[in-house]
Amino acid sequence: MTNADSEAFGVYVHWPFCLSKCPYCDFNSHVRHAAIDQERFARAFAQEIATTAGRIGPRTVTSIFLGGGTPSLMQPQTVGAILDAIGKHWHVAGDVEVSLEANPTSVEATRFAGYRTAGVNRVSLGVQAMDDASLKMLGRLHTAEEAMQAVAIARGAFDRYSFDLIYARPDQTPAMWTEELTRAIGEAAEHLSLYQLTIEEGTPFFGLHAAGKLKTPDEGPARTLYDVTQEICARHGLPAYEISNHARPGAECRHNLVYWRGQEYAGIGPGAHGRLDIDGIRHATATDKRPEAWVMRVESTGHGVMTDDLLNREERADEFLLMGLRLAEGIDPRRYAAISGRALDPRRIALLREEGAIAVDTDGRLRVTQEGFPVLDAVVADLAA
Question: Where is the Radical SAM core domain (predicted)?
Fold first, then answer.
């Protein structure tokens, strides 16, 4: 892993469109039945990139992430235009990581070679489950066989690829998850993102869950599935480097590390969030979530930013703690003190160590333990108080 305090600058680009809305998803994604004017959106992305670069000045881009929505609905030339705009306005590191989220359907997999030519060097596939009944329950449009074919195509097109699975699904037993996860690791090569199914307000699953028509595992069984996940992945050489992300050493998603290490990134596109340092002050930015409104705003003002909050030292420190303690590498308390202007309370650290929730390394780094991860929010709240 690279040094947690080294200079990194990420660019996140949000493509907001999907073919259908998954019933568990609360991301900023939109279904449109008319064709999307991709050239217009590409011009708007380029304009917002130019405006952002003009505002913050020179940066060396170390990672780019095309997220969504479903970025694999973009034509390769749209992706190429976005990457060209980034390269025009900022210096791009020679070893830049360029990730694109993709649906594992055969139609979208046919674009993989085009994405590679455009400059993408890593894909993240939304597989979500490896059996058709679960995929149907999750509202996915692909079959398990189609997903594995897409993974095989990704393997041929890219040196680096990852895929997502959702666990703690209704009626899922540890034995079922063990078998599925073991199979996934055989296909995954270097990186897996493994998320517990959570019921988010405002989604169709929220209504079904409230009505008793969708039952997810209780806290005890869910914790067992989490423990199974850690044990199997570690045994197969993909330990957790973050609560939900597992990788072979050196294969971590560098873009996501930018977020978790509290580093700087630009948020481009509808509903994208950014963290930008301007004149020594950290700005938290967010753009208009509505795709068509965002485009019109960019065309008239040069950007789609709706909120631009200046974070004070305490807010920055809280965010650093909240994000950094998600990582297996933990945080350097000296960096926390430099950001916040005060040290963490040694008595609270001692108490949490006694309880087995955190560990302190020989170099002073603070880490949440395996036992502490399931109660991470409480650990963070205790340290930040």
Answer: 3-239
Report the pLDDT value the prediction gives residue 385, as an integer from 0 to 100. 80
Asked if residue 159 lies in contact with residue 191, where contact means CB atoms within 8 angstroms, the answer is no
Which residues have CB under 8 Å from 362's CB, separation 6+?
Answer: none
Residues in the chain: 385
- Write the CA distances from 266 to 5, 8, 11, 74, 101, integer angstroms: 18, 12, 5, 20, 18
Residue 314's φ and ψ, nearest 5 degrees, are -65, -40
DSSP per position, 243-264 = TTEEE-TT-S-HHHHHHHTT-E
Where on the phi/psi map is residue 182: left (φ > 0), alpha (ψ -120 to 50), or beta?
Answer: alpha
CA 335 to chain centre: 23
* Successive 10-residue mean pLDDT values, the chain, 385 residues: 66 94 80 92 98 97 96 96 98 98 88 97 96 92 93 94 94 95 92 91 82 84 93 96 96 97 97 96 97 98 98 95 95 95 94 95 93 89 88
- Evaluate whether 122 touches 165 at the Cβ level (below 8 Å): no
Query: 168-172 contacts: CB < 8 A, separation 24 or more?
Result: 168/196, 168/197, 168/216, 168/217, 168/221, 168/222, 168/225, 168/226, 169/129, 169/134, 169/137, 169/138, 169/197, 169/216, 170/137, 170/214, 170/215, 170/216, 170/217, 171/215, 172/217, 172/225
> Which parts of 189-301 fold into alpha helices (H)?
204-210, 219-235, 254-260, 291-301
Mutual orientation of helices 291-301 and 38-56 as an angle, nearest 10°? Answer: 50
Query: Which amino acid is it at 102?
Result: A
pTM: 0.94
Report pLDDT for 108.
86
Measure the N-to-C terminal CA separation of the chain; round to a whole number of Å: 30
Q: How far is CA 340 from CA 224, 313, 337, in A?
A: 37, 5, 5
